[in-house]
Design brief:
mainly alpha; two-stranded antiparallel sheet; homodimer
């Protein structure tokens, strides 16, 4: 049997549909109910009590399916490195994704199980992400190369040693961006499912990135399966566990394929979530200093809450984000093809 | 400069946006107004007088851009056959696409310029398509091979000499299907734009089909540009000229890449248009024979008129067809990837 994306996709979806109904009552019973961010829109207050940490399954299933695919490829002897070797991108990918997930899990665990509302402090989170980002960036520097693709030009840009600090910041930025975007029912699952198809195609079109592609299709399946429970009205959230895992995968597949610039295109909505928060807080601080009272650019940040407060329904926001991601993904995938 | 899809896409869009405003008043002046099919929905009567034959530009631009891409590839010396040779799929592709377009043009010309409402007789159309289909099928039999890919199995099916008659019928079926689907503002342009990205990706992923891929991206651009004028409310129709050209390209790119079964997936909405007409007329004839009065399955066929008469707006029908095509296209593209 040949290994094809739809097998990995179907396996992930099946595992999710099979396992989540078992996990859901467990999470509910253990009262993993999320304390809804008390600065979110008023309409979100009724979400109090919805179980959290569904991301455990997104991460778990993606890892299992990707490892299985990696073993299959190694057994078939079609990859030009041994399974247990630093050249195998599988382990680096897992370090970045599962490392980020662990930080999110710690945060969720403290908030929901220990019932300490604060979770990890921002400094603790950033330190953890710094370590994960630095380790993964150094790996990529030595085993992937310090050049990144400049889309639409056919050229690459060798960043030299600056690659490591810049990419470390990118890892921190993307995991936090994914985390910030996860604030509307089904929004991050939808956008990720679409983006992962794009990255799976990009990795395949570029060649030599089969394991990266396999991981993309596995995560896509996990997200589609998760939507069964996470679509509005959500019966479960993925939590920081899920969103930081997704952020970790996003940035890892981009770095392993040198398509960091396409990441900003495909994950434009994620990036916007972060940027809108930065703009909002910066503007608030500046105006507070100047006028004594802080002013706001958006009604609320991240920007998806702004759209909600402007009167859009949650599903409309998700549909809009999906459409934007879809078009930008198509542009990104096509930019990789070169006829000569 | 490297040749990339977005260059061909952008070139097609630009040419369409540039040339159509020049052609539109010309077509209006020459009173190429289409006589609206008097069996269509009542609401379509007001479309009387909308100029037709916009397909000339869809076909013309696609051909020009594809030929330019073919010349570029030959000059770069990256294809392993001389430009003027039977091995170059460019000419076969043009025979199928432009041959089909010529039949559609003859029909439009007789209807709109000669003002003879009947146009070509069904027998004349089918004979023309038979010739085009037979020539192209024989070419593919000798230069592409008589095996077709069975999706999701990793196997191919060698049809032997039966390839020629079956594929001849497929060419006739697809050109007529595209023609039948073209009955709602922007529907065929939208579905084609999406399907051509899928086929462009498939041709690229399979390798060795650069010219086929180039043609797909060129036609995609032409359709997107055409939507500027053809989206509801349409200021111009593509006419049989355009729809038969599109049908010809669809079937040609599928046959040149052996993905005939994926064609039925990607162009599912096209196929449904034909099938719904066949079901409707067959059922009508059978019931007329049995009960003395003909009965109908759909309120009207092709099936998009049925949806309209059920209360859907034109744009809603287009959106639904686009969504279906998008999902099926994604499935088709992913089915081509094999990790080993």
């Amino acid at each position: 049997m040949t290994l094809q994306p739809y097998i990995l996709f179907a396996l992930s979806v099946a595992l999710m549909l099979l396992l989540m109904p078992k996990l859901l009552p467990l999470l509910k019973k253990m009262k993993f109910g999320q304390t809804i961010y008390n600065l979110g829109p008023q309409a979100h207050q009724k979400k109090q009590g919805t179980p959290n940490m569904g991301g455990i399954l997104i991460g778990g299933i993606t890892v299992i399916v990707t490892v299985l695919a990696g073993v299959y490829m190694a057994v078939k002897g079609q990859v030009d490195y041994p399974f247990f070797s630093l050249k195998n991108p599988l382990f680096a990918l897992l370090v970045c994704a599962v490392g980020s997930m662990a930080i999110g899990f710690a945060d969720d665990f403290i908030k929901d199980v220990k019932k300490r509302h604060d979770g990890l402090s921002p400094i603790q989170k950033l330190l953890g992400q710094l370590v994960v980002g630095a380790v993964f960036s150094v790996y990529c520097y030595y085993f992937v190369g310090s050049d990144v693709i400049l889309p639409f030009t056919g050229k690459t840009w060798d960043m030299g040693i600056f690659y490591v600090p810049v990419m470390t910041v990118l890892v921190m930025f993307m995991t936090n961006s994914a985390n910030l975007q996860d604030g509307v029912d089904g929004i991050l699952s939808t956008v990720t499912a679409c983006g992962m198809v794009a990255f799976g195609l990009i990795a395949t079109l570029m060649g030599g990135n089969e394991i990266v592609a396999a991981c993309c299709f596995a995560l896509c399946g996990a997200c589609v399966g998760f939507l069964r429970f996470n679509a509005h009205p959500a019966r479960i959230f993925m939590g920081d566990t899920g969103s930081m895992f997704i952020g970790g995968v996003m940035v890892a597949v981009a770095m392993l394929t040198k398509t960091e610039f396409l990441l900003l295109l495909i994950c434009f909505t994620c990036v916007m979530s972060s940027v809108s928060v930065m703009l909002q807080t910066t503007y608030f601080k500046i105006t507070k200093k100047r006028y004594g009272q802080g002013r706001r650019i958006f009604k609320m940040s991240p920007i998806h809450h702004h759209f909600e407060l402007c009167g859009m329904k949650e599903v409309q926001v998700v549909a809009m984000y999906f459409a934007v991601t879809l078009v930008l993904s198509a542009v990104a995938v096509l930019s990789v093809i070169k006829f000569f």
